[in-house]
Amino acid sequence: MKKTIRLIIPTLFVFLLTAIATVHAAPILKLHSAGHDVTLLQQLLQKENYTINITGVFDETTQEIVKTFQSDNNLPDTGIVDRQTWSLLTEKSSQGSATTPVVSTPTVVTPQNDNPITTVPISQPPVTITIPTQTNPQSSDNTRRKKPQSEEAVIASIRAQRVPETATFLPRSKVNSIISTAKKYMGTPYVYGGETPKGFDCSGYLQYVFKQNNIDIPRTADEQYKVGEKVPAAQLQPGDLVFFATDLTGISHCGIYLGKNQFIHASTSRGVRIDQLDDTYWQKYFINGKHIVK
């Protein structure tokens, strides 16, 4: 009996810590919020069979649907996604799918080997990745004000934007190691802001994989999009990076190209997985690849 109690108490303690971390890590979203959190919110509401478009913008329609969800679940229908609303929404979604995003507290990234992590210059062997200043003459404010009406036109305009480029920096001899490391974390859950094997977001996953191979790349998808040489899908090589604009406002998702039209990434709905680049959904939001293999 005493042995059973000793086993139950640590398990209960871990469960409580996880629940507390989930609540405190939950985002607070309201009218006019925008970005990846809103995209994830809309995806979760869609999974709960609420009719909502995935725009990445917390507009009045999203607010009304949030109110409906809150009312349906006996919560104050404020239209504001507080921690209680977010926790219930992710809990409901996880009951329907074992691969629904989980929120946890990030921990410190530790390399898996004893070699020091070298920052790599993009133009020579190990130093530092230098990202050129954005040279696009059209400001993001003007781009947003003049955003075309159709999704196709928005994507086309993002594809056409100029983006900083650097020399290739990933040694071809390290490509297999990068891909092997990436596949090692298949099934790891998606965690917004996650950058460890406990949970990754898309750019945190890429940064972690490269860091395990002693290569430092920027932390966010939009900054990662500034390294390497811009190429269309047809010119991608295994080890290159791929980028998407799933929220229709700019680069919001990324992955590692594996070859044969496949890429590996940390998806919001199913965690780290392999998908087809020519899948209808990913093809629609694909912006460009960045060739980084030298």
TrEMBL record:
The signal peptide, as residue positions, is 1-25
Task: Name the UniProt key words of this record, in alphabetical order.
Answer: Hydrolase, Protease, Signal, Thiol protease
Gene3D superfamilies associated with the record: endopeptidase domain like (from Nostoc punctiforme) (3.90.1720.10), PGBD-like superfamily/PGBD (1.10.101.10)
Which GO MF terms does the UniProt record name?
cysteine-type peptidase activity
Tell me the segments the record calls region Disordered: 96-152
Indicate yes or no for the key word Cell division. Answer: no
InterPro entries membership: NLP_P60_dom (IPR000064), Papain-like_cys_pep_sf (IPR038765), Peptidase_C40 (IPR051202), Peptidoglycan-bd-like (IPR002477), PGBD-like_sf (IPR036365), PGBDSf (IPR036366)
Instruction: Please provide the Gene Ontology terms (biological process) for this protein.
Output: proteolysis
Q: Where is the NlpC/P60 domain?
A: 172-293
Q: Name one Pfam family in it.
A: NLPC_P60
Composition skew (Low complexity), residue ranges: 99-139
The family assignment reads:
Belongs to the peptidase C40 family.
Q: What is this protein called?
A: Cell wall-associated NlpC family hydrolase
